[in-house]
Structure formats: C-alpha cells, structure tokens
Amino acid sequence: MQRQLTLEAPSMKPKYAFDPLAVKDAILPFLRHIVALDGPLDHDQFSLLAHRYPRPDGGLFSRSQLIEAYRTFAGQDLPPLDEAVLRQLRRKPMRTMSGVTPVTVLTKPFPCPGECIFCPNDVRMPKSYLSDEPGAQRAEQNAFDPYLQTYSRLQTYHNLAHPTDKIEVIILGGTWSFYPETYQLWFVRRIFDALHDFGRGIDRQAEVWEALRAESQLHPQNNQANVTIVGLDKTYNQVVQQVYANEMRRSRQVSARVAQGLRRPTDEYATWEEVEEAHRINESAACRVVGLVIETRPDHISAEEVLRLRRLGCTKVQIGFQSLNDEVLRKNRRGHDVAATRRAVRLLRRVGFKIHAHWMPNLYGSSPEQDVEDYARMFSDPDFCPDELKVYPCSLIESAELMQRYQDGSWRPYTHDELLFVLVEALKRTPEYCRLTRIIRDIPSTDIVVGNQLTNFRQIAEDALRARGGQSGDIRLREVRHQTIDPAALHLDEVRYDGGVSDEIFLQFINAQRQIAAFLRLSLPKAGQPALHPDLEDAAIIREVHVYGQSLGIGQEAQGQAQHSGLGTRLIERAAELARAAGYERLAVISAVGTRGYYRKRGFADGALYQIRALRTQGE
After folding, report:
1. How many other CB atoms are found less than 10 A from the CB of residue 289?
2. For 128, left (φ over 0), alpha (ψ -120 to 50), or beta?
3. Run of H or E residues at 516
4. What is the mean pLDDT of each run of 10 residues along the chain (620 residues)?
5. Do 216 and 222 contact (CB within 8 A), yes or no?
6. How far apart are CA 213 and CA 202, in angstroms?
7. CB atoms < 10 A from the CB of 225, how many?
8. Is the separation of the CB atoms in 492 and 574 below 8 Å?
9. Which domains occur in the chain, in start order?
C-alpha cells in the first residue's frame, strides 16, 4: 500500500481564532479571579471557573488562551506580569518540574546497523519508533526537520506558560552515530538556529516549509512511502533504502548549491565551524542549551566517537544495554556482546558523559528470575552503573521478527504478576545515584499484539513496593519537584561507588526524608590510564550538576524554590575540595554550551572541549 506524502505546513492559526481584545469583557473577570487566588489552582477549580466565566460564544476558555490574554492585559487592565500567576495557569507543570525544559526531536528514517528481533519496523519512522507515539507524531507533522520540530515545541511550551530559557535538547531516532556526519552537523546547527530565532521573536517556519515543498517537487519519488508496517518478506533497511534511493543524487545537488552559496535551510549540510559558531551564540542566547542528548548503540562507541560527540556539544548519551547476558543478546540478534557494552560505558565515563541506559526485561531467551539477576548485575558490576535508566519491558509489535517466536511458542509475554515481580525488584535494587527516567514505554495499546498495555505500571509497581514496606532509592521518586524547600533543612550526603575506570562520588542535598533538591556527579579517574583529551589530564571531572524544582528563568528567584538558592555552587565547591584532597591538579566540567557562563563565574576557564578550574595555586 502506498501513499503520497504531502509537505504542507500545518495551519499557523488555531482552530478557534483567539483575539484577547475581542473577548476582553468576558475574560478579564476570569483572570482577575485567578490573580486574586491564594494557593494553587488545581484541575477541578479551573474547571469550575471555566464554566463560571465562559466565552461569549458559549464555549470555554482554555489555559493557553488565558495565558495569552494575561500576557496581553498584564500591566494595563491587570497588575504587572507575575510569574506566580503564570505558574497557576501553566498546563502540565510536571514537564518542567525537574528544573529544565526538555525538547525532544527525532531524526529522519534511516538504515539501522542492528537486526534486533524485538524492534518494530515502521518505515515512516527512524528505527524502533512507531508513528502513533506522541513524539513521533510531532516529528512526522514537522517533516522530521530539526528547525520545525524545535520551534514548534518551544511555541507550545510558551503558550502553556512554561519557561523556554533553559533547554535540554534530546535527539532521538535510530543510531545517531550511524547517520552521516554532515547530517549530524546540520541537524544540530538547525536546532540551535530554531532556539536563537525563537528567543529573538523571529519565525522562519514558513521559509522552511517552502524549501521542503521545493525539494519534494524536485524529487517526487522521495514522496512515496510505504504506510504499512514492514512485513517479514523485507527488512526495514531494504524498504528505507528503496524509499531514499535518491539520496545520493540529492546529496550531489546539495553540494553544488553549497559551492554556489545557494544553500537552502533544508539542505542537510553544515560545517564544524558553523556548529561551533552556533555554540558561541547560544552562550548568551535567550534560549540556552543546558544539556544535549543523543542515543546510540554500544558497538558504535569508540575513543574517536566520544570526542566527536563532545565536540558537537553533547553532554549525555542514551545507550541501549537491553541485556547483560550474552546468550540473550545473541538470541535477539542484537549485533554486539556484553563486552561491547562494557567498553562503551568505560569510554563514555572516561570523558565525563552522563550515561542513560536502556534495559529490556522479557526478551526472547530470558525469564523473570534471569531479568532480576541481570538488573542486579547492572549495579553490582562497576563497568556499568548507569546514571539514568529507561526500563522497557519487551512488547510484541506485529512488524517485529519476534512475532515468529510468539507464533511458534518459544516466546511469550510475562503475565501481570511476573512483570510486577521484575519491576518491584528493579525498584528495590535501584541505588540513589540512578534516576529511573521511565518504566514502560509509551507504546499505544493498538500497536501491542499481546502483553502489558497498562501505561501506569510504574505506579502499580511503586505502590506494590510500598505496600511491602520497601522503598526505592530512585532519584525520580525523591525529587522535591513543586514542594517548598527550606535550605536549612537540607544536608549534604555523599554516595561513593566504583565506576570501573573511576571512583564515583554522588553528592546530594537531601532532607530528613531523603528527598533530593540538588546533586552533583564527581568522577575521580583511576591511575594507570591516559586521558583521552588534553583537557582531562590530571583532572577530576564534574559529570553533572542538577538542581531540582520547577524550572525558573535565568536570573529569576522564587522563595522556597531549590533553583537559584546557591545549592549548585555549594556542590561545586565541595567537589573541588574532594578532588584536591584526592591529589588532582585540576577540576574539569563537561558543561553544556548554554552553561559555560555559569561555570566561568565559578572559576572555570574554557578549554577545547571542557571547562577547567585549577585546584592548586603556584607554590602549593
């Protein structure tokens, strides 16, 4: 089955054309009521107020419309703009409750170096993603263009009163390291272009859509895509290569345009110099990158690759462990062994990256008991010990080769009780330095042939653990989030563990209940291994500094909030003390481009890829 892909820009106007001035008399009483509130505005309260103050046409005002109207009338018919009021109106506050605003973008569909039997094969998407997952839908609606994806996401956050000045950019889709370098450079640079334009109030989305339409007219054959999932008669790579068979010709035409100085915004080409210039601009931009994340496979990590990723501005790597059992990896045709995962993690840790692992219970060839052993191994073996973790129980998707194993009876999904057993044990065994970012992947139930379809299984497992008197050390469960914080009630706690190539110290400010307000990851490289980059010679490494609580704007303060209360600085100073006591001459930090100014103010100087602070004065 074939379909014609149409490259039409989505309407820039909302379905209900909203003009605050046209409904001023109806919306001002609603806003005055909210401004006068003393306390939070929950969902039920908002619903009651929305019905009390309806739109003139009989409909109800949405939060985004109220936010737009509040920004319009604040300082005129209402008191001056107050961030506290915007927080009252904010929709989905959890999105930025961890202290930063995440912007996720997906790369285009592209051949994958893996042949995993559990992986879905939807050629409309980069490998392992499905077209009806929320993030994938946003990517497809924006033609997988990095500028459009980034800009539209920022606009949504702004419309819902979320801050847009401290951005964690998360690049997902297949194996990043397998994409051509020119595509990677262009993709990253265009993300930064969107951030900078949005911060300046410039909107070039129409220009990008026009370039996409021009491209589709030049190469109509690229507008044909198989909309059905790939059957077992053809692999994902075979279909994607067929769909993108014209890429080489297009690449030559792009090169010709570049040579003539006629580059389009959609031409997948950029230089290292252009990326580095975008980094420099971002240091003082209105929308700053405080983290840049990519995902890749263990067998695509090398010493050269980790330094190249660092040059791109990357600070965290999502990496698919899937299993730490060689036989399970072999049966699932993962394409690498546990030794490759071990080498990859050691290299990533040596250069200071945050390590965000993916792990999959219920794989073909495993069992609930083996999975629990596997999870325990992940944190008892020093060569693994990830900083963050996504737990993705294997789901059967019709397009996956695993379907054959299900049909012949050699694989089955875990029962509810078996899956609950594994997840409860995983929660119990998670150390305090690890954050369980996600448990259960957000796959629409319509895509799952058999197996768990409960998206709230994490909550079920957490409740089951508490009912048994247990407690998880998982960071996500301990974050202070929206709670008021008294800095005097916090104390500094230090968790030390073996990181294989380093001694790791997890410094955390916690209260008596061990709720976490801020943390720092300090890596003390072990002797006997050369530094992979001159910036890291004789240096301890700060791999991450994070302060929790609702994300505040750069320079903003809010009484009782963890952010901007000096916790980050205190953690850095303690890290410097520990590194100095351990005999290191310098302290390096793997800073994001948008945090360079922050670290300069705290005594760090710019190196080539890191920022460095001397720990000893001359004569010491």
Report:
1. 26
2. left
3. strand 516-525
4. 46 62 92 86 88 92 91 92 86 72 94 88 84 87 96 94 94 91 96 98 95 73 43 65 62 71 85 97 97 96 98 98 98 96 98 98 97 98 98 90 94 96 97 95 80 88 95 94 81 98 98 95 95 98 88 48 73 98 97 97 98 79
5. yes
6. 21
7. 17
8. yes
9. 20-89 (no CATH), 94-296 (no CATH), 312-478 (3.30.750.200), 479-614 (3.40.630.30)
SS3 content of the chain, % helix, strand, coil (to 5): 40, 15, 45
CB 270 within 8 Å of CB 189: yes
| pTM, rounded to two decimals | 0.90
In three-state secondary structure terms, 236 is: helix
**Bridge partners of residue 516, in order along the sequence:** 479, 510
Q: Where are the alpha helices (DSSP H) in 294-353?
A: 303-311, 326-331, 338-350
In angstroms, the Cα distances linking 17 to 20, 53, 74, 203 are 10, 19, 21, 19
**Is the distance from CB of 458 to CB of 389 less than 8 angstroms?**
no
Q: What is the pLDDT of residue 228?
A: 42
**Whether the Cβ atoms of residue 493 and residue 517 lie closer than 8 Å to each other:** no
Q: Which two tokens stand for residue 271?
A: 């230089």
Strands (E), 143-249: 166-172, 224-226
> Which residues, 6+ apart, have CB-to-CB distance to 133 below 8 Å?
442, 443, 444
How many alpha carbons fall within 13 Å on the CB side of residue 539? 25
Q: What is the pLDDT of residue 551?
A: 45
Nearest 5°: CA angle at 424, between 418 and 425?
90
Q: Residue 483: count other Cβ atoms within 10 Å of its Cβ.
A: 15
Nearest residue to 151 (alpha-carbon basis) of 74, 309, 265, 63: 265
CA dihedral 182, 103, 144, 313 (to 10 degrees): 0
Q: What angle in degrees, to the nearest 10, is found between the helix axes of 146-159 and 134-141?
A: 120
Whether 359 and 392 have beta carbons less than 8 Å apart is answered as yes
CB atoms within 10 A of CB 536: 23
The two structure tokens encoding residue 534: 């001159």
Question: Please, are residues 573 and 500 in contact by the beta-carbon 8 Å criterion?
Answer: no
Sheet holding 166-172, edge to edge: 101-106, 166-172, 288-296, 316-322, 354-359, 388-391, 435-439
317 SS3 class? strand
Q: What is the pLDDT of residues 408-436, one digit of tens each?
A: 999 999 999 999 999 999 999 999 999 99
